[in-house]
Amino acid sequence: MNFKKISKLVAVSVVFGMLGTVVAGCGGGAKQENTGGAPTSGIKGSLQVKGSDTIVNLSQAMAEDFMAKNPQATIAVTGGGSGTGIAALTNKTCDLANSSREIKAEEKAKIKEATGKDVKEYAIAMDGIGFIVNKENPVNELTNEQLANIYTGKISNWKEVGGNDEKIVALAREASSGTHVFVKEHLMKNQEYRADALLQTSSASIAKEAETNKQAIGYVGMGYLTDKVKVIAVKKDAGSPAVLPSEATVKDKTYPVSRPLYVYSAGEPEGLSKSFVDFMLSAEGQAIVKKMDFIAVK
């Protein structure tokens, strides 16, 4: 498979942050104004978007394109994990929350209690969670059960799954990550992560560790897959074909570990929030989804 590098976008994001093009932090009290016209014209104000690390580069790319078309609009995008974004929405310190997992009923209830508004959900892309190892690792495919057993600690040596006689180093996202929760719920069937799992603060750090650590295995969204690591083909069970994550296999649901990526708001989006949500779901926004190696929903 050919996967695009993400380093350039990360660098651009940092530069934009340093120059003040994107105002860091969350400030739900920021003024939002839409003076009418097309969704990406005559728009001004500021917007705070926070949450999923999986989506942060995609959301940043969309924000940069949107702001280029609407120079009077400022959109700040920060990561921290899906749980962090949802908490910020609850605390009214951001306007939109990015999440790589479905919001929980108790989280909806807290937002309703805090804001008096029902949560609105928008699926902006589809994603396949890729399991990655060092390029020198001889293992090419694993079943859902083997992956679950690796992450729960039932399998601790690569030789148990056809690899070298070496200890497995399991890389996982921290608990606030939507990807952490998704893997736990959908792959591990709510079993606990192994005690020695190395919890990482970002998908980029997992990818970087897998590049250099010959014993490591980690998971990242498709937008973080690069040619510097090996992507493991996943089998639903021992009798099923091994499948790599791709646009085609996520769309036809043959890749076993797939999910929607969401944006949440408290109540119907208004003003700049609505304009940006509309942009994300537009043909222009969905073209950026594809460019970032995720799967468009439209």
UniProtKB/TrEMBL annotation:
<keyword id="KW-0472">Membrane</keyword>
<feature type="domain" description="PBP">
    <location>
        <begin position="39"/>
        <end position="284"/>
    </location>
</feature>
<dbReference type="GO" id="GO:0006817">
    <property type="term" value="P:phosphate ion transport"/>
</dbReference>
<protein>
    <recommendedName>
        <fullName>Phosphate-binding protein</fullName>
    </recommendedName>
</protein>
<dbReference type="InterPro" id="IPR011862">
    <property type="entry name" value="Phos-bd"/>
</dbReference>
<dbReference type="InterPro" id="IPR050811">
    <property type="entry name" value="Phosphate_ABC_transporter"/>
</dbReference>
<dbReference type="GO" id="GO:0042301">
    <property type="term" value="F:phosphate ion binding"/>
</dbReference>
<keyword id="KW-0592">Phosphate transport</keyword>
<feature type="signal peptide">
    <location>
        <begin position="1"/>
        <end position="24"/>
    </location>
</feature>
<comment type="subunit">
    <text>The complex is composed of two ATP-binding proteins (PstB), two transmembrane proteins (PstC and PstA) and a solute-binding protein (PstS).</text>
</comment>
<keyword id="KW-0732">Signal</keyword>
<dbReference type="InterPro" id="IPR024370">
    <property type="entry name" value="PBP_domain"/>
</dbReference>
<comment type="similarity">
    <text>Belongs to the PstS family.</text>
</comment>
<keyword id="KW-0813">Transport</keyword>
<keyword id="KW-0449">Lipoprotein</keyword>
<keyword id="KW-1003">Cell membrane</keyword>
<comment type="function">
    <text>Part of the ABC transporter complex PstSACB involved in phosphate import.</text>
</comment>
<keyword id="KW-0564">Palmitate</keyword>
<dbReference type="GO" id="GO:0005886">
    <property type="term" value="C:plasma membrane"/>
</dbReference>
<dbReference type="Pfam" id="PF12849">
    <property type="entry name" value="PBP_like_2"/>
</dbReference>
<comment type="function">
    <text>Involved in the system for phosphate transport across the cytoplasmic membrane.</text>
</comment>
